[in-house]
Every structure is written in structure tokens, then in C-alpha cells.
Amino acid sequence: MTTYGTIPTSSSPSGSTSASGEYIARAKDRIKAGLGARRPWKLMFDFRSLNFAHGFGDALTRLRYNASYFRMNYAIIVLLILFLSLLWHPISLIVLIVMLAAWLFLYFLRDEPLVLFGRTVDDRIVLIVLSVVTIVLLFLTSATMNILVALLISVVVVAVHATLRKTEDLHVDEENAGLMTGPAGSSA
């Protein structure tokens, strides 16, 4: 049997009130764990660690390493820029908030596979359907240009920071060590 989360579920027949309370407690724990992956902002914006790369290869290495190392920080920045761009489009903002709630409950906070009409739905299908529905609903709210500009600005901000931020002072925890190649392996 495949497990879909790090927090075990209990199958106690104690009623729906405690089950919903247990679900909320698990959701809080998973959100805290996800935000715990965020790196300190002080480390991210250490101005002594900003300089230009020595070449295109070094810039790409920095981009890959920093994108992986600061991924939660970058996700927060992208969402903040998207949120700010939708402030003058309240309907789009409401759609974004509703879709974020759908993403949380249907994709990120699920411990068990999604079952519809007695059939288990694969996570990739859930991801594709949620992505398509989110994009279609946001584009139907007449804020298409705002969304595209916000996403473009987000990509530029993240790419500029990731290429300017040196990686020599960043240390990878053991859990992510296999996922990233450190700066020691890169050639300048």
C-alpha cells in the first residue's frame, strides 16, 4: 500500500467531529512542515553574497542550485507578486483564493489517494485537472494580462536573484544532498 503523506492517519470510529478536528490538526502540521522548508530571509538577501557570475555556465549552476535551495522562498515571492497584481481585480483574487483552497485540500494536504465513484484517481490526473481549471478560471476573469505580466515579473525576479546569489556559503541538509550538486562541484 502506498502512503501519501508523512503524517499517519488513524482509523478510529469516534465520529465526524473528531475526524474533522484530526484532519485540521494534520493540515496545520503539514503547512508548518512546508513553511519550515523556507530558508531564512536574512540568508536569502545577504547583500555580501550577491555578485555577478563568472560566466554563463556559472550563472546556470547558480540558478539551478539557488532555485532548489530557496524554492519555498521563491514560491512565496511568486504568490505575493501574483496576489499584488490581482488587488485591482477582486473577482480574480476571489477565484485565486478559492483555487488555492482547492489545491490545498485536493492535492497538498491529502494523506490518502483521491477516490471518485469508487475509483482511485492518480495524483498526476489531480495535478493536471487542478492546473487546467485554475488557468481557465483565472483567464475567464478578464485579468489575463495582469496574470501574465505578474508571472513574467516573478520569473525575472527569481532568475535575477538566483543568478546573482553566490552559493559558496549555502549548506545543503542531508535530506536534499542527493538532489542538488553543491558549489564545490561547479567550475568557475
Q: How would you describe what is shown here?
A:
A hairpin with a 2-residue loop joins strand 1 and strand 2. The protein has seven helices and two strands. A two-stranded antiparallel ribbon has the order 1-2. With 188 residues, it is mostly helical. Helix 3 packs across helix 7, helix 4 runs antiparallel to helix 7 and helix 5 runs antiparallel to helix 6.
Largest beta sheet: strand ordering: 1-2
The counted number of beta strands is 2
Low-confidence stretches: 174-188
What share of the residues lie within helices? 55-70%
Distance between the termini: 46 Å
Q: Which whole number gives the mean pLDDT?
A: 76
Indicate the multimeric state.
single chain
| Strand content range | under 5%
Shape descriptor: globular
